């Protein structure tokens, strides 16, 4: 991935933001099946070892082929921002908030849509998964409460408590997500229900 002329910017030191974008780009390529796990690890090692933008390009050798002009000017899809960080963050907050609020009208389908469209490994994806799982958990509580109330009517309170907790915590989660504040549903911390929720992504060299 070299050319007869190399733009001086290729010798600039890699910034943390450029390195983060490179990691995200490679993780997306892995999620799309374009890289094996071993290849991903090897290329991530190159990203973290890269000092200059030219070094960073080597992590994408054979995976992408920038045009000669792009090579000469030092631009590359791994660190050329197509969307500003502010716009990306706003979109992520919107997806997370949608996942919570839409569940009030669509049940699990709104959070599922949010989960499918959120970027791999993003906070928006984690929040959408949490909204989906909590909706299932609360639905189970409502159904259990309805069944138990047939056995002994006072047990019907379980259904009411489950519905109220679901409604209030979905509102809180949506408000926190819209504001960009980190938040974790307190009931999901102790619940074994995990259908979509995934562990936080590993630090990948950090």
TrEMBL record:
Major subcellular site: membrane
Matching Pfam families: DUF1707, MamF_MmsF
Key words, A-Z: Membrane, Transmembrane, Transmembrane helix
Annotated localization: Membrane
Annotated coiled-coil segments of the chain: none
Membrane topology of the entry: Multi-pass membrane protein
Domain DUF1707: 13-63
Membrane-spanning residues: 97-118, 155-179
Entry keyword annotation includes Transcription regulation: no
Domain of life the protein comes from: Bacteria
This protein's name: DUF1707 domain-containing protein
